[in-house]
C-alpha cells in the first residue's frame, strides 16, 4: 500500500513540540552538512569550505559580499550557529529546517527570507523530486540552505569565478535573482519531463492498459500538482518582489525579477495544458480497458460464428430422408467436408478483411 | 437510509425560538460539563477543577493570566454563568452552544471570539469526527469551549506545567496561538487519513467493486468536504488576525499566526489533491463494475466456444453417408472422442495463454 | 412535455406593457388578499384584520410600531392603496407584484425594500415550492407581502403576542431581522429535504434504473439550483446590510444580521455538497442502466452455456460408429440423460456460486 | 460540412482595409434601408418615413425630441449622411455597420453609444437568430440601427402614439431605457425556447438516439452560448449605466435601468441551468446509443437461447440407443415436437415477463 | 514519440548562461536577416532595404517618422546594433531574441515594448504556426521584429505607399495600432480554422474512430490553447494601453486600441466555444469506438441467430422416430431445405428492417 510517508514524518516529529523548536522536518538526504562560503567583490572571489562549526567561527571576512551555502539540514546545531551569527528570527530558522514550506517571502528588518523549491528529475525511476531552497538575502550577504547538493547552483559559482564575469560587480540582490532564475529555468525542464511522461502514459493506455497504469497516472498527476504548488506561490512572491518598493532589490534587479515572474506565468500556463491531458488520461485508460475486453468478446463470437455453417451442414447430412443427394455417392463425405471447409474459409476471409480477427 | 440527523436536530430545537435563546444545538457527547481553570504567570501554574457552578463562584483569582476550559455544552446554566462573569455578548454565548458554526472570528471591545473545529479520527469506524472549539481571548484570559474532551490540548497543558517552559512567560495571546496551532497540526493527520482511505477505496474499486463502495466513496467525499469547510474559513480568520492591527495579538504573536496561516494554505492545497482523487474514484468504480461484468461474459463465451469443435465432430460422425472413414473401425468412437478432446484442449490452451479464463 | 409555464406567464402578461404598470406576474395562489395589521409597542399588541380596502382606510394607528402583512397579490388595487399610503416608489410596487424577482435590497429615502424567498416542502409530491417575500422596512413600520400564507411567520406573531416577550420592545428593524432569520432557518430544512431526495434517487438509480428517474434527477437538480439562487443573492444582501452604515438597522441589530449572514454561507456550502452528489447521480444512473443490461446478457449467456454439454452428449450418441459404448445396453438412454443432467447441474452450480444467475 | 460563414464574411471584407473604413460587415437581410423619424413631445407625435437621403436632408424638425430608426445597413451612404448630421465618431459609424460587435456602451461628449443584440426565434427551423441593435442616445434624440425589421420596437411606437401615454412626456433617456427593456424581455422568451429545445432533445436522446442529434445538441449549445454572449456584457453595460453619474440618464431613469440590470442577472442565472442540462445531454445521448445497442444484443441472445432446448430435444431423439422411449410409438414425433414447443414457449414467457423481448 | 522540441531548444541553449546574454532562442526560420526601413511623413514614403549592418550604419534619416522591420533573429550582431542605435534595454533585446515570450507591454522612458504573436495557418498540414512579433514604439519610430516574413504586414505597407492614404499623416502610434489590428484580425481566421478542424474531427470520430484521431484531437486542443495564450495576455495589454494615460499613444489612438481590445474579447469568447466542443470530442470519440465494437458484436450475433432455425430443422429430421412426416417422400429433402431457407430469410428480413445488418 502506498503511504505518503513524508507527511507522517512531519507529524510524528512535530506534534506536541512548542512552536519555534529547531527540529529538522523532512527526509535526511545528506550525510554531513556541507558548508561553503564564497566571498566576492569586483576584484575577485575567495572560496572556503568549513569542515566544522569551530572552523567557521574563526573565519574572518575577506571581501565585501558573501554567499554562504549549506547542504544538509539535519544538524540543528549548524542552523543555530548561523542563526545567531546572522541574527535570524526563530521562525525563519524553523522554516529553513522544516522543508515542507510553501514558497513565500518574508521581509524582516535586516534581511529578506525567500522559500522556493528546486526540482530534480530522476531519469531512472522517472520521478520528480523536489527540495526546499531557503534564500536569505541581507544587505551584503546571501545565505542558501538546501537538503541536498543538486548541482543546480554550480553554473552560478562558475560565473562568479569567471575572470571577466560581470556577476561579481553586481550586488548580492543580483546573486539572489540569479539563484531564483536558475530554479525557474529548471521548472521548464520538469515541464518537458511531465509532458513526455504524459504522452508515454497515453500510448501505454491505448496499447496495453493494465491497472498498474492507474497508479502511474495518479503519480504523474501528483507530480504535476507538486510542480504547480511550487510555482504558483513563487509567482506571487516574484510579483510582489518585482513591484514592491523593497530596500533589498535595486530598481534594476527588480526589472530582472519581472522577467522571471513572466517565466513562472509561462510555466503555469504550460502546466495547465499538461494537467488537461492528464485529466483525459483516466478516461482514455478506462475506455481502453473496456474496448480491449469488447474486442476479445468479438473474437470469441467470431470463432463461434465460424463453426455455425459446418455444424449446419453436418446436421443436414445427418437427416434421415430416404431420398437425399450425395449420401450414396463414393465421394459424398469428402464433398460434405469440403463444403464445410469452404463455408468456414469464406466467413473467416470476410471477418479478416474487416479486421475482426485481430485483438488490435 | 442514511439521514443527516445533526441538521435535523438543529432545526427541531431551534425553529420558533427567539434568536439569542441559549439552547445547546448539536449532539450531547459528554455526560457532565467539566470545567478546569489553569491560572499561570512566569512563576508557576495553579490548576483548579470545578465540580459545581457554586464552587466556581467562590473561586478567587491567584495569578495574572488564566485559561478556563469547558468540556460539555448541554447545560445552558454553565454558559449563562460564564457569560455573565466574562460579560460575553448573547450572540457569542449562542454561538458557543450552537456547535454548527462556521469558523470565524468576531472582535468585541473586551475580547476576541474565535470559532474553529477540532478533528478526530476514529480508527475503528475509519471516520472523521469534528467538534466545535470556541476560543474567547481577553486581555488576560482565554476561555475554551468544546463538546467533548479530545485530549487535543493536553500537550499544551504539559508545556504550561513544565518547569522551564517559556510558555508561561508569554501572554494569553500566545496561548491562543498555541491552541490554534494544535488544531491545525491535527488537520495534517486528518489529511493523511483521508489520503489513505482514498487509496484503499481505489484498491477496492479495482479488486472488488460493489454498490456498498459507492456509499463509502460518498462518505469520504463528504468528510473531505467537512475538513475543507473547517479549514477554508479558518484560513481567512488567520489571515485577518495576522495582518490586522488588533489589540489582542502582539506583533510578535502575529508573526506566529502568519505561520499557521501558511499551514492552513498547505492543508487546503493538499486537500485539493485528495478531492481530485476522490472525484476520479466514481469513474474508476463504475468502469470497474462494468469491466467485471464484461470479463464474466467473456468467460461464458469462452466456454461456449470450447464446445463448438466437439459438437461439430459429433455432427460429422452422425452424417448418414454410405462411405465414411472410421465409422466401421473398432476404435472409431475412441478416435472421435480423442479428436474432440484434442480440439477442446488446444482451444483452451490458446485462451489460457491470453488470460481469457481468469475472472481477473 | 414539461413546459416551464411560469416564465410563459411572465411574458404573455408583461410584453408590450409600459414599465411600472401594476400587473401581478406569477401564479395566483390565494383567492382573496388577506391583510393583517399588527401594531405593537413595549406595552402590548393590537391585531386587526381588514376585509376590505375601505375598512383599512378608516383605520387609525393605535401604537408606535406596526407590521402590515399581505397574503395574495393578484389584486393591483390593494397594492396601489398601500403604495399610496406608504409612498412606495412605482418600481417597488411593481417588484412586489412581480414575484419572480431575485433577492435584493433597495434603499430609498424613507424605507428599505428587501426581496427574499420563502421555501416550502410539499411532502406529498416531494417538491420544493418557493414564494417571494417582499419586506419593506420603514422607520416605524414593516410591510410584508407574500403570494400565499405559508405559516412561516406564525412563530414571530406568537412571540409578539407573548406577555413577557422582549420582541415588542425592540424596534421594527429587529422585527425585520426576525423575519429574515425565519426564512433562512427554513433553508436548512430544504437542504435536508434535498439531501434526502438525493440519497433516495441514488438508491433508486442502483436498484431500479428507469428513464423516469432521469426526469426526477433533473427536477431535484433544478430545485437545488432554485434554492441556491434564492440564497446566493440574499447572502450578498445580508452582507451589505450588516456592514453598511444604514439608518434602518441599529448597530446592535446589524450584529444579528451578521449572524444570519453566517447561516446563509453555511447553507450555500452544504448546498455545494448536495449539488456535487446530484452531479454524480447522472453517471451512476447511466452506468447502472448499462450494467443492468449487461447482467441480463450474462444470464442469457449462462443459459446458452448450460445447454452446451447436453447438446454435445446428444450429438455424441447420435454418431454412427459401428462400435460404440452404451448404445446397445438396456439403460443406455437413461445413462445418457443422466450424464446430461449431471453436466448441466455441475455447471449451474458453478455459476450459482459465482452469483451469475442473479439479475443482481 | 457546416461552416461558420458569418465570420468568413467578416474577414474577406475587412482584411487589408484601413480601420475606420465604412464597410457593412454582416449578412444583408433587408433589400432597401428603411428610415423612419418619430418626433414627439408631451403634446403629440409626428412620424415621417424617408424614401431617399435627399428627402431626409430637406426635413425640418417639428418637435423637441426625436427618434430616428434605421432598418438595413448595407448602404454606407446612409450611415455617412447620418454620421455627418449627428456628428458621430468614425469608430461609432464603423461599429454600427459591423454587426458582430459585443454589447458595450461608449460615452462620447455629445452622445452615448450602446450596442445590444435583439433575438428572434424562428419557429419553423427552431433556431435563434440575433441582430445587432445600435442605440445612440443624445440630449434630445435617439438613433437606432438594425439590420432587419423584427417588430421588436412596435409596442414602443404604439405607446408613443397613444393618446394618454406618459411616454411622450419622459425624456429621450426613458425612450432608450424602454428600448433596452424590450430587448431584455425578449431574452426571457429565448430562454424559454432554449429550455424547450433542451427538453425535446433529451426526450429524443432517450427514445431515438442518432448521430444527427449530436449536431442538434451542438447547435443548441451554440445558441445558448450566443445568448449568453449577448446578455453577459449587456449586464455589465446596464450595471455601469445605472450606477455611473452620467449626464445622459436622469437619476430616475437610472432606477429603471437597475431594474433591467436585475433582469439580465436573472436571465444569466436561468441560462446556467439550461447550459447544465445541455452539458448532461451529450452523456445521455452517448449512453443511450450504447444502451440501444446492448438491448439489441440482448434480444438476439434471447432468440439464440429460445432455440437451445428444441435443438437439444432433436439431438436427444437423434441418438442411436437401441432402447429408447417414444421412438417406436405412433405419436412419438408429434410428442417430441410438442416438447420443443412447450420448452420454447415457457422460456419465451419468462423472458417476456422480464421485458427482455422489447427493444425498449 | 512526439517531443515538444521547442522547449528543449530553449533549455539547452539558455541553461547556465548569465541572464541578459543575447542568444537567439527559438527555431531558425529565415536564412538571412532581412532589414527594411520605411520612412514616411505626410508628403511621402522612402523605403530602404539593408543588405549589411554597415549599409545601415551609413544611412541618414530622410523623413520625420520611420518604421524599421526585421525578419530573422538568429544573428545577435544585428540585434546588438539596433539595440545600441535605439538605446534598447538589455532585457528588451533579450526578449526580442527569445521568441517564447508571453504577450506583454513594458514601458521604458523612451519607448514602449510590446510583444504579441502572429499566427499563420499551414493549409497543407492543417496546423497553426505562431511567431513572436516584437513592436518597439518610440516617439517617432516603430521597430518590428519577427522570425519570419509572413506577409501579415504587407497590407499596411501598401497603405503607407498609397497616394492619398491618411495613414502617413498619423503618428507612429497609429502605425503601431494598425500592426496590432492586423494581428488580431488574423486571430479570427485562426478561430475559423480551429472551428473547421473541430467539426472535421467530430465527423471523423463518428464515421471512422481510430487511435490516430486521439493524437489529432490533442493537437487541435493544443493549438486552441496556444491561440488562447497569445490572445489572453494581449487583451490585458490592450486594456492597459487603451486606458492608461501613456505618452506613447494619443487619446485618439487609444480609442482605436479600445476597439481591438473589444475584438480580443470577442476572440476569447468564441475560443471558449471551440474549446467546449474539443472537450466533448474525447467523449464522442471514446464512445464511438465502443459503439463500433458493439455494432460488430451485434452483427456476429445476428449471423449466429440466422443459423439457429436451420440447425434445428436439420436436428428434427435427424431424429430416429419410426413414424415421421416427409422422410419417406421423394421431395422430403428439398422441402426441408426450403424450410431452412425460408426460416433464415424471414429472420434476415426482420433484422434487415431493423438495420441490424449494417456496420453503421
Q: How does this model look, in words?
A:
- The structure is a homopentamer of 360-residue chains.
- Chain A is an alpha+beta fold and 360 residues long.
- The first copy, chain A, folds into 2 domains: 13-288, CorA soluble domain-like (Beta Polymerase, domain 2, 2-Layer Sandwich), CATH 3.30.460; 290-353, Methane Monooxygenase Hydroxylase, Chain G, domain 1.
- Helices cover 55% and strands 16% of the residues of chain A.
- Chain A has a 7-stranded mixed beta sheet with strand order 2-1-3-7-6-5-4, sandwiched between helices.
- In chain A, helix 3 packs antiparallel against helix 4 (90-97).
- At the B-C interface, helix 1, helix 7, helix 8 and helix 9 of B face helix 5, helix 6 and helix 8 of C.
List the helices and strands and how they pair.
The structure is a homopentamer of 360-residue chains.
Chain A (H helix, E strand, L loop, with lengths): L4 H10 L19 E8 L2 E7 L2 H6 L6 E7 L4 H10 L4 H8 L6 E4 L3 E12 L4 E12 L2 E6 L7 H8 L10 H36 L3 H33 L7 H66 L15 H22 L7
Parallel strand pairs in A: 3-7
Antiparallel strand pairs in A: 1-2, 1-3, 4-5, 5-6, 6-7
Helix pairs in contact in A: 3-4, 6-7, 6-8, 7-8, 8-9
Strand-pairing-aware structural class of chain A:
alpha+beta
Class of the largest domain in chain A, according to the CATH hierarchy? Alpha Beta
**Quaternary organisation:** homopentamer
Q: Which fold name is given in CATH as the topology of the largest domain in chain A?
A: Beta Polymerase, domain 2
Strand content of chain A: 15-25%
Membrane topology (chains A, B, C, D, E): Multi-pass membrane protein
Organism (chains A, B, C, D, E): Zoogloea oleivorans
Keywords (chains A, B, C, D, E): Cell membrane, Ion transport, Magnesium, Membrane, Transmembrane, Transmembrane helix, Transport
Subcellular location (chains A, B, C, D, E): Cell membrane; Membrane
